[in-house]
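Box 3.1. Reading complex inputs
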Amino acid sequence: MTDNLTISVGRRGPFTGRTWHLHVLSVVCVLLIGFPLLYAALVATQTNAEVFAFRLTPGSSFGEHFHKVWVERGIGRAMWNSLVMSTLVTVAKTVLSMAAGLAFVYFRFRGRSLVFLGVLVTLMMPTEVMILALFRVTSDLGMTDSLWALVVPFAASATSVFLFRQHFMSLPAELPEAAQLDGAGPFQFCFRILLPLSWNTIGALAVVSFTYAWNMYLWPVLVIKDASGQVVQQSLSALRATDQAISYGPLMLGALLASVPPLLVFLALQKPFMSGMAISDK
Amino acid sequence: MLLILTVLAAALAAVVASRGRLHPLAGGAVGLAAASATTWTFAGCALGGDVTGDNTGVQRVLAVAAVVTVAAGVARTVAALRAGGGPAGEAMLTELRSGRFRTGAWLPWLLLAPTLAILAVFLYYPSFQTFALSTKLARMGAPRSADVCLGNFAELLVPSPYLVAGLPPAAVAVVAGLALWRSRTTPGTASHTAAAALSPLGPIATVVALYFVFAPGRTGYRGVYVATLGISFGIVALSMTAGLGLAYLVARRFRGASVYRTLLIWPYAVSPPVAGILFFMMFDPTAGVMAHLAGVVGLDFPSYRTDGVLAQAAIVLAASWKWVGHNILFYVAALQTVPREIVEAAAIDGAGAWRRFVRIVVPTIAPVTFFLLVTNLTYAFFDVYGTIDYLTRGGPSGRTTVAIYEIIRVGVGTGDLGRGAAQSVILFIAVIGLTVWQFRRSEGRITYGGGA
């Protein structure tokens, strides 16, 4: 790397001919990072014989594999289950965390610091550490094999509460006073003033929550035993655990299909996500 | 003799804890967690009382250690409260602006109620339950359970109470001694530099001591400890260095940089199980592209299904690949805060590109590095479960059975809730310890410019 390029970190400058090697390097890195996915896309179209022959051209079995994966192995239904679960988690988490952030920033009440400390402590407690006891609690509540078990425990999140709290505190302190002078109550203030100012944070949180929920694996494996209620990350194992030898094409196709929704969410909300992350970084 | 030793260690730990610059809130949390843990632990068996089963010596040592932890935690909390919460804690709490809306007191509670209810039922209660279960012989689906005191823990350790009692205090002594030496020297002097250079010895001493404290063999925890250590360290090291390198490449402004950024980040959207499946395909000994490429070059590619080291490497690669986007994201944001004037001034003074990177860029983004260290460790500890389950299933012969995988294998696979919970508690302590360490380290950092 030449000197003048290293200096130009953060400098907004015109395009110069000297950046060609940056492009070469970037393309190489992108290809390296993208390789597992590109390779999977290739295999997804091939029969096992073609996979073993290491053909670099796409095979002809895509349609056949799709039918097998989507209909026969129930990935379609599992993806629907995942979609419902992830959407519910995302919406619930956003609403509940925003309400909690609102309470912490714009209200004074007895025991606020203590409650805040109580939420703060949970940042250090990953769910997985207590997953056996959590499983026992949900079983005792009779929630296993239902959507409730997948959604309710994840509807509250200390991280999201903090994200909203940080965001609200970065807004001008005069906002609530001005709103009150104009005769707005807390709810009007929330919907008319805070909400329009919070889309970046909400967008960032939506990406994180949706991806997190969609990619959950261990917890669904524990609480969902019924085949019709399985989420997509679980049902992928049906593509691998066949009685005969593994058919690689359908397995890769399933893996790729399972990755499409979070990717779409990520691409759709990329702008608010990037700026929302920058806010939470401060 | 044993008791005197442990009491001495306890006193030492309490002093160190109360003098250290522990984050007051973290101190309170440790005190709280430790207090609740011991309350549950000693509900059934008093110190030196009706300890049953094998390894009674080890159990007594563990009991004393638990008391010591609580003493240290409480001492630390009291000290923090007397000191007025310390600067960071004060800032954190007074940052909460005084409320603006003067409605009834019920409204904020109503807003908080759902969050608090869910946290109580699905977070606080299960964590207490975990500690309670760890002292029991409990089976999945069985309504009855029996108290086994600290037997579940004692099994995982070497049967010698002397080793269990001796090594951790020795590690603590190394850590405390180094911290003391460092605090006594003045910055800039040779001895201060030496003390600073030796400070990694503390964590190393702890890691080594734990290796000898965990028992080898099928019932012991040494294999799981080594696998967890190796795989977590591999993932953190690889995904963070790769993340920093790639972020450094695409954080500059050149045409198309943002497109490259997006293309580099997007494996982040892929789930850990899918990462496992993709690498399962690539590393497949017969059909995979890696074996094929090795064959083209004329190399013999061993099968990761029998080669333990290769299996660990495959897990590390798959998990890092999935996670590198996360690190790029944060490092790109951090690199925007590196002051351009300082970098340019250094360049004018003749500092080379590498030197500028190491001396200016790396220190500036250190807070983000410490933040990422914790998120990466959490990822490497827990989210790796899906990758392992689809790629190696913990094999060959347990070489990729990390802590969380073993917890599920024992607790759900064999239905042994008590032993699974005991392992959960060990992991819990590790996570809290690492978080506290991160708090302390990141507080002590001085930076120019922004950052987290």
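In summary: Residues 7 and 256 of chain B are 63 Å apart (CA to CA).
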